[in-house]
Amino acid sequence: MKHAVVLLSGGLDSATAFAVAKAEGFAVHALSADYGQRHRVELERAAAIAKTMGAIEHRIVKLDLRQIGGSALTSDLAVPKDRSTDDMNHCIPATYVPARNTILLGLALGYAETVGACDLFIGANVLDYSGYPDCRPEFLTAFENLANLATKAGVEGARFRVHAPLLKMTKAEIIREGVGLGVDYSRTLSCYDPDAAGRACGRCDSCQLRRKGFAEAGVPDPTVYV
What pTM was computed for the model? Predict the structure, then answer.
């Protein structure tokens, strides 16, 4: 059986990427990061998703990106709320975590080497991506090239591939794909600023994109909002 490492945040996109990897015949090793994010409750969702969707293993790597800061997710900066679609598409928000996808893919690459996997899955999206530079196809291609240059496995002939199956899909298309693959979106959390009970704020960029996606997909939104 083919093995793959899937970056699993506990959100809508990563859960769908997990389902796609399974549908393509991969045995999935799920990887999450406890990096000091304010929405740490997402890790509980990731654990539930990994269990119910049949991950071979789910590892949570702990690192403290609060020591670097620079993001509303890893500092006391306010999470932007009620931004317009135009703002989301034309500026990089304060919720951008410096080099996060580079760090997470690096962890996934190391994990992949230890379990003999050559395929990495990430739920990056270039259409509804809220302005993040590390969700662009150019970045993913560059990281794939790096993976094959910077690893023992790559030097010895393995060929690493970075899969971003949701890259050019709208949020509505992602939701329809996930529903078709049996994803239970009630288990996922997309919010950047949930309350202590894990309820979504409904106003951050991620909540707005999620709400819009369910509405356009014609699928009931199972999210519990404040």
Answer: 0.96
